[in-house]
Design goal:
Blueprint: H1 4-10, H2 38-48, H3 54-69, E1 100-103, E2 112-114, E3 127-134, E4 138-143, E5 149-153, E6 158-159, E7 166-168, E8 178-184, H4 193-200, H5 205-209, H6 218-227, H7 232-246
Antiparallel strand pairs: 1-8, 2-7, 3-4, 3-8, 4-5, 6-7
């Protein structure tokens, strides 16, 4: 497999040979998603979020692999397959991905959107989209992911449902105009990764991934998880998690 450890940690279906999104790496066509055990599933959701979108998974996997490559355990990334389709020293740049986009078939000059949020890492959703309809007296916004709506008078700034972001519709915008607002929120720097990984280890993960009867690399990695400082300790835990996932049955 290509990006073997990354593929195992993500545990997502194959994405084919056409890679169109920034940071996307190939998940081989012959990879089968594994049925995670409860401790690993709980840890996975702490690390990647309960319902992460593509972008969050991509950024988080880059953070995890950078951590592993920065440790003395880097060799374990390629121990099962020497191929890498990414450069550990030159990860994809996501900065320009985080933005506000407002689209309409009508003239929406003067529409303003203010956003100062970062991703809620408990869910792992970066991209949010709203449909905004403009009436004669009211403005209504609907969050497309959940259906949640919010309505205010045209003279007010509207808080987009499910967020702290706000949109202002100037009086000059005609009645009946509709628009779509897409906000891609930035992800915190990897400096907060230690707290996330600490929380993940409290889900019953450690006995599950370091059972030598279930993980062929457990005995090699456990001393690093027990006695070494970070980032080596986190690298050992992530590698053990990946290779334990490999041994799990295929999801139905």
């Amino acid at each position: 497999m290509i990006n073997h450890v990354r593929t195992l940690l993500l545990n997502q279906p194959p994405n084919g040979n056409y890679l169109s999104a920034i940071g996307e790496e190939l998940i081989p066509a012959d990879f089968n998603v594994r049925q995670l055990t409860p401790p690993i599933e709980r840890a996975w959701k702490v690390i990647f979020g309960s319902r992460p979108d593509y972008l969050f998974r991509a950024v988080r996997s880059v953070q995890l692999l950078q951590l592993i490559h920065a440790s003395p355990l880097e060799r374990f990334v390629t121990v099962k397959d020497p191929r890498l389709t990414y450069s550990p020293l030159h990860p994809p740049i996501f900065k320009n991905t985080f933005k506000i986009d407002v689209q309409s078939d009508d003239d929406i000059t003067g529409v303003q959107v203010r956003n100062n949020e970062v991703v809620n890492e408990s869910t792992g959703q970066c991209v949010w989209e709203w449909h905004v309809g403009i009436g004669s007296t009211n403005v209504t916004a609907k969050l497309l992911q959940t259906g949640e709506t919010q309505t205010v008078s045209r003279q007010q700034e509207l808080t987009l449902p499910g967020s702290n972001s706000k949109i202002y519709i100037p009086a000059a915008i005609a009645n009946g105009v509709s628009l779509t607002v897409t906000i891609t929120n930035p992800i915190r720097e990897a400096t907060g990764l230690a707290a996330i990984l600490t929380a993940a280890t409290k889900s019953g993960l450690m006995p599950e991934i370091f059972d030598a009867a279930k993980n062929p690399f457990a005995s090699q990695l456990k001393p690093f998880a027990d006695d070494y400082p970070t980032p080596t300790r986190w690298a050992a835990i992530l590698l053990a998690m990946a290779y334990r996932i490999e041994e799990l049955p295929v999801a139905l």
